[in-house]
Amino acid sequence: MIASLRGRVQSTNLNSLILDVSGVGYLVQVTPSLAMSVQVGQELDLVTSFIVREDSFTIFGFTSKEELRAFELLLSVSGVGPKLALSVIHQLGVDALGDAIETQNDSAFKAVSGIGPKTAKLLVVTLSGKLTGNSNAKSSNSDADLVSALVGLGYQTKVSDEIVKKIRKENPEGSAEQILRLALQGLAR
Predict the structure, then answer these.
(1) Residues paired with 46 in a beta bridge
(2) What is the CATH number of domain 4-62?
(3) Alpha-carbon distance 119 to 80, whole Å?
(4) What CATH class has 65-127?
(5) Which residues have a Cβ under 8 Å from the Cβ of 176 and sit 6 or more positions away?
(6) DSSP classification of residue 151
(7) In the prediction, which pLDDT does 132 show?
(8) Which residues of the chain have pLDDT under 50?
(9) For residue 69, how far is the Cα from the chain centroid?
(10) The pLDDT value given to residue 137
(11) Which terminus of the chain has fewer CB atoms gathered within 10 Å of its CB, N or C?
């Protein structure tokens, strides 16, 4: 499996580029916005998804792990192939995709060519709870770490989870340290 590539851009096309990695040119499928934003000769770091089919081996490249994760989650939806998943990421972006899933806004997918109302609804239903907007994902990961820390200190998982959620709701922009301090104060009572 090819998990990442770092090299110089040899050429670009509308939705692909050739990346020279130590003398080997890799054809990488990318979003049109990425293909248009890079220059020939530019050093580029990509996280990748290597897809093997009967008739092809294809590399899909992304500039962030969040894009790669969204791409892989989109592929888990019945009827969504790699090119359509790439198109969704290009048209919506990871944050808007997460927000559309979280708010169950299937009309956000109207902008994506190849996705009809049924597929949009299927995307929303299948990915619900798996993909959220970037800021929500960061706070969710941080909150899970806080719950783990509280459990490590001897508090019950359910109690820890409830207090972290309560404090996060009251302080949506609070840092992990602030939330932990407030959770410990709340649990001490």
Answers:
(1) 5
(2) 2.40.50.140
(3) 8
(4) mainly alpha
(5) 142, 145, 146
(6) H
(7) 55
(8) 133-137
(9) 4
(10) 46
(11) C
Question: pTM for the full model?
Answer: 0.68
CATH superfamily of 134-188: Ubiquitin-associated (UBA) domain (1.10.8.10)
d(CA 17, CA 34): 9
Residue ranges covered by each domain of the chain:
4-62, 65-127, 134-188
Instruction: Specify the pLDDT at position 44.
Output: 96
3-state secondary structure of 6: strand
Q: In angstroms, rounded to a whole number, what is the distance separating the alpha carbons of residues 160 and 101?
A: 27
52 has which bridge partners?
57
What's the angle, vertex CA 139, arms to CA 136 and CA 140, rounded to 5?
80
Which helix (H) or strand (E) segment holds residue 119: the answer is helix 117-127
Predicted local distance difference test score (pLDDT) of residue 5: 97
Per-residue tokens: 21 = 């990695």
Is residue 134 a contact partner of residue 165, using CB atoms and an 8 Å limit? no
Residues 3 and 1: their CA atoms lie apart, in Å, by: 6
Amino acid at 77: V
